[in-house]
Specification:
By secondary structure, this protein is of the alpha+beta class. The chain has a domain of 231 residues: 3-Layer(bba) Sandwich (FAD/NAD(P)-binding domain), CATH 3.50.50.60. The chain is built from twelve helices and 19 strands. Strands 1, 2, 8, 9, 10, 11, 17 and 18 form an eight-stranded mixed sheet that branches. Bound molecules: adenosine-5-diphosphoribose and P-hydroxybenzoic acid. The site of P-hydroxybenzoic acid has 9 residues, from loops.
Length: 396
């Protein structure tokens, strides 16, 4: 089989890229190693920047989002026993975010791809990418019990942090910049109404906590925990008690978290990683295959969307004009946004989490930074601009 763009990975990056290429009249094939149910149920992020929402709508994938997403105009910071709200529209000229789970974005894109897009093969595991430095790269994969090949004009690795596409880049050609954090997140889904109508990011000497949501009846909550934490060591009551201790909402607000059955529990590591360049020959990387951000800044899904918007525009430009200039600029164009998001995610993570090794001096620095955000519209605007995401320009 041959296709113009072979896409490895049927997560948000691969699915959105396939959709945008289809809309540009460019054929592609998506190879996804897991089954549909697994991909659609995989709990990940929940915040979409305005630019991501706009892209999904333009791609024809915005109908359910527009019906079901929760529009948020700000977030709450809790620190030192008090709260401060950061308003987005007033600080960014009108930008806001929406809460719409990645699982729902994936479901919407899968339905569109199966209904009117090119081939999307589940249970299709890619084992190798060959000929990255030729004009006919080859993907080797297994599907329906048989070893198969897909010849392509281009291959895009949308296969996440643990994918195989990066392996097509010879040693010494790419550089990976990494940072790991001395803590993880314990994330839960609970059938309990959110404690507040916006997200709450809490700094606490017991550790960070985040109160997010999926609907008016479902809460998504996170606790900073040590690396290597076993979710089984955290029964529901222990989770709720620790969340209450860290949010400490009982003081003035008279609130406590509304409790309910925990329906999903998992531990996710915190890391930053960027692979440069995001291209070798005719193999290009997008989304988590190229970069990872700690989830504190809610950037992962939005960065993935930004990558594939740039890439789809570049392929469309090549098809329409014969010029590869945008494709040749892909990596540099994306990396500017990637490093901005990496810095913001690092800033939010290091300001709000309590590193087990940090000194009281470090804690005072964190509180001073949070106080600065609470008292300076300039500092608050810097957070709001980064959180709501920088607009996707004509080429990026
Ligand atoms: N062959 C086929 N598919 C593969 C292979 C392989 N060898 N390796 C990985 N995959 C698939 C995975 O099963 C997964 O469905 O690639 C997909 C990668 O999806 P994600 O990891 O979700 O990455 P991406 O699409 O870039 O989306 C980034 O997901 O991890 C979150 O925080 C991240 O929100 C961000 C988003
Ligand atoms: C989520 O809802 O899953 C979520 C929201 C904001 C974050 C991280 C995760 O910063």
């Amino acid at each position: 089989m041959h296709t113009t763009v072979g896409i490895i990975g049927g997560g948000p990056s691969g699915l959105l890229l396939a959709r945008l290429l289809h809309r540009a009249g460019i054929d592609s094939v998506v190879l996804e190693r897991r089954d549909r149910v697994f991909v659609e149920q995989r709990q990940r992020a929940g915040i979409l920047e305005q630019a991501t929402v706009d892209v999904l709508r333009e791609a024809g994938a915005g109908a359910r989002l527009d019906r079901e997403a929760l529009v948020h105009d700000g977030i709450e910071l809790r620190f030192d026993g008090r709260s401060h709200r950061v308003d987005f529209p007033s600080l960014t000229g009108g930008r806001r975010v929406v809460v719409y789970a990645q699982t729902e974005v994936v479901k919407d894109l899968i339905a569109l791809q199966l209904d009117e897009g090119g081939p999307l093969l589940f249970d299709a595991e890619v084992h190798a990418v060959e000929g990255a430095d030729t004009d006919r790269p080859l993907i080797r994969y297994s599907h329906e019990g048989r070893e198969q090949t897909l010849s392509c004009d281009y291959v895009v690795g949308c296969d996440g942090f643990h994918g195989v596409a990066r392996g097509a880049v010879p040693d010494g050609v790419s550089t990976t910049f990494e940072r790991t954090y001395p803590y993880s997140w314990l994330g839960i889904l609970a059938d309990a109404p959110p404690v507040y109508d916006e997200l709450i990011y809490a700094h606490s000497e017991r550790g960070f906590a985040l109160a997010s949501m999926r609907s008016p009846a479902v809460s998504r909550l996170y606790l900073q925990v040590p690396n290597g934490t076993d979710p089984a060591d955290w029964p529901d009551d222990r989770i709720w008690d620790e969340l209450d201790a860290r949010f400490a909402l009982r003081d003035g607000a008279g609130q406590r978290l509304k409790r309910g059955p925990v329906t999903q529990k998992s531990v996710l590591p915190m890391r930053s990683s960027v692979t440069e360049p995001m291209r070798y020959g005719r193999v290009l990387l997008a989304g988590d295959a190229a970069h990872i951000v700690p989830p504190t800044g809610a950037k992962g899904l939005n960065l993935a969307a930004a990558d594939v918007v740039v890439l789809a525009r570049a392929f469309a430009h090549l098809k329409d004009s014969g010029s590869a200039e945008l494709l040749d600029a892909y990596s540099d164009t994306c990396l500017r946004r990637v490093w901005r998001a990496e810095h913001f995610s690092y800033f939010m993570t290091s300001t709000l989490h309590t590193d087990p090794r940090q000194s009281p001096f470090d804690t005072r620095l964190q509180l001073s930074q949070l106080e600065r955000i609470a008292t300076s519209p300039h500092a608050a605007a810097e957070l709001a601009e980064n959180y709501t995401g920088l607009p996707l320009g004509p080429t990026a």
